[in-house]
């Protein structure tokens, strides 16, 4: 922390989606760095669980209960006294029936409502929005071997595409780019006193902040559940195909959120936050090599050391490295740390 931090230490930061996997890591780093955090939670139960996790920071952490992230009046009250906002709350699920109601509208209206509420609070200096690699990737271009995707790339999907599709993955990708474009349009048209920073992470892996409130592994977030299921499927099982071949460690992503608050030069910038390409075979190799023998024997053998096939696009996070001071963990670190944590949880 330097004296010229854009959002100074001791400021209050509102975190939406703070009870989620990524949000909890963001809260942790903010508390460690001396910020006060106001976490938006959908229920008192979730707030109580988060308070238990961060018990030693109870003087820095408060909660606002907000059942609907599109509720303007509730958000106006929530942003009062805050200097900055980390906006992570957005639906990430393919188990939906109504794409408009369950994916597109919550993402779009949630982002716009946050911006509109913040525009009524003169103390707000910066809003960091967690977008996604989904807002960068254009699936119509195929695998694009040899192409390095950056924050300069944008998905062409529209709101209408998200509604008309029968594929929940397309609807999800549309929800991310539509809500992100709306944020940029808001800044351009309304010229608010605050600026924004947009982060575009791919698949996010890594250990949980704590397993204190974890009742069962059924509560795992989607990306981590895929790692756990693969790591425990048995040595003779097939290594599943690598569907999303780019990743970031959750701890690095949380650091990117923190840096986005304090680095003045991040103002109104978009960043790719990706450690690079991986394959599920590479993950299995790392798990078999680095886990204890009893745990390693449950990991699929597959074809050791086989590179990603077919070849895919890559990512280039040079801008995040240069502006935000990022460095990235290799894929073995988040997955080994996660799997060991979950085995320890199970006892």
Please describe what this structure looks like.
This protein is of the alpha/beta class. The chain has a domain at 12-207 and 246-276 and 314-328: NAD(P)-binding Rossmann-like Domain (Rossmann fold, 3-Layer(aba) Sandwich). Helix content is 40%, strand content 14%. It contains twelve helices and twelve strands. The chain has helices spanning 21-32, 44-53, 72-79, 99-118, 159-164, 168-190, 222-231, 250-262, 280-290, 293-296, 318-324, 332-346, and strands at 12-16, 36-41, 61-65, 84-87, 126-130, 148-149, 195-200, 203-205, 246-249, 269-272, 276-277, 314-315. A seven-stranded parallel sheet has the order 3-2-1-4-5-7-10, sandwiched between helices. Strands 8-9-11 form a three-stranded mixed sheet. A two-stranded parallel sheet has the order 6-12. Helix 7 (222-231) links the parallel strand 8 (203-205) and strand 9. Helix 1 crosses helix 8 and helix 4 (99-118) runs parallel beside helix 6. The two termini are 38 Å apart. The mean pLDDT is 95. This is NAD-dependent epimerase/dehydratase domain-containing protein. Pfam families: Epimerase. InterPro entries: Epimerase_deHydtase, NAD(P)-bd_dom_sf, NAD(P)_dehydrat-like. Belongs to the NAD(P)-dependent epimerase/dehydratase family. Dihydroflavonol-4-reductase subfamily. Residues 13-213 form the NAD-dependent epimerase/dehydratase domain.
